Amino acid sequence: MYKIVYVLVCSDKDLYCEQCILSIMSVKKNSPESPITLLIDDLTKNCIEHHTSKKQIFELVDELISVPRPQNFSGMETSRYLKTKMREFVQGDFLYIDSDTIICSPLYEIEDIAIELGAVLDQHTSLSQSTHAIISKQHIKKVSSLNELAQYEKYFNGGVLWVRDTESNHKFFNDWHNNWLHSRSKGIKTDMPALALANYQNNFSIQELDGVWNCQIWFGANYLPKAKIIHYFTSIDTFSGGYGVFSVDLPKKINSGEKLDKHDWELIQNARNAFPTPNAIIVGSDYEIYRSSLCGVLRALYRKKRLFNLFEKILYLIRILRAKFII
């Protein structure tokens, strides 16, 4: 029997534990036969034990694994440390799932997929077409010093990983962890460039899973109707259009000690339809504009509302004058 594995590092100042609780609750609702393992560090364990609402996570899991936090590691670094070493700590086949997720249907079918190591493409597209292609390629080159690796188009997202307990996977994770330690020394603390390098070092052993197993919500419209796992990304904040009901609203309710009511459970059961409105699907040339550096400037400008509105008003007046001139 496979396990579902979560890695959690949290403090009193964030909602990571509450997001993890919400994700685990959605597992219990939709895939109750799946045993759950929680991998944490000792400082996180101490934090949870002294916080009543967070402590319920211990009752929701079947196995708790706590390891010492490495000296001088931040919370973010510790989470990547545990994630890249989890194959060492967890016995048996497992499905790793990030905490910023909602499970929408049973997961047992993962065992029927005849692969040893599986993941979904980052943003459901090739590396060159992703919204962070330039930065990702720079990080890959910095971590690996391999120009050809930055040209490899299958760049996998580490938010959901299917991992069988094999000798080759133990080697893969050992390489991934060592790559990440090297990456950290270079100032790159995310784990995906190191994952890409490990994939290269192991003859590209990651096999592509169907996008329904890690429907990255802002890029996965084609997979959303049948999504098994929705990945809403904590890094996308509510201000810029985040999946706020799951990343903020319900976690805050859990943090306050309130129990989820019928309406909350309806939201969880209908997570595929939880987009804030208004919304739009962006494709073609509009997508190219969306992922451009110029659009990034506009997003930054939007945070300074008064300045953004001033420019918007000026451009609006120009459009009015242009329309009158053409007429």
What do you see in this structure?
This protein is α/β, with parallel strands linked by helices. It is 46% helix and 13% strand. A seven-stranded mixed β-sheet has the order 3-2-1-4-7-6-8, sandwiched between helices. Helix 1 links the parallel strand 1 and strand 2. The chain is globular, with a radius of gyration of 21 Å. The mean pLDDT is 93.
CATH architecture of the largest domain: Alpha-Beta Complex
Class inferred from helices and paired strands:
alpha/beta
**What is the name of the CATH class of the largest domain?**
Alpha Beta
The N- to C-terminal Cα distance equals 72 Å
Strand order of the largest sheet: 3-2-1-4-7-6-8
Provide the gyration radius in Å. Answer: 21 Å
The 3D shape can be described as globular
The helix tally amounts to 14
Order of helices and strands: EHEHHHEHEEEHHEHHEEEHHHHH
The overall strand count is 10
CATH homologous superfamily heading of the largest domain: Spore Coat Polysaccharide Biosynthesis Protein SpsA, Chain A
Q: From the 3D structure, determine the CATH topology of the largest domain.
A: Spore Coat Polysaccharide Biosynthesis Protein SpsA, Chain A
Strand content: 5-15%
Percent range of helical residues: 40-55%
Rounded mean pLDDT score = 93
The number of domains is 2
| Largest sheet: number of strands, sense, barrel closure | 7 strands, mixed
Poorly predicted segments = none
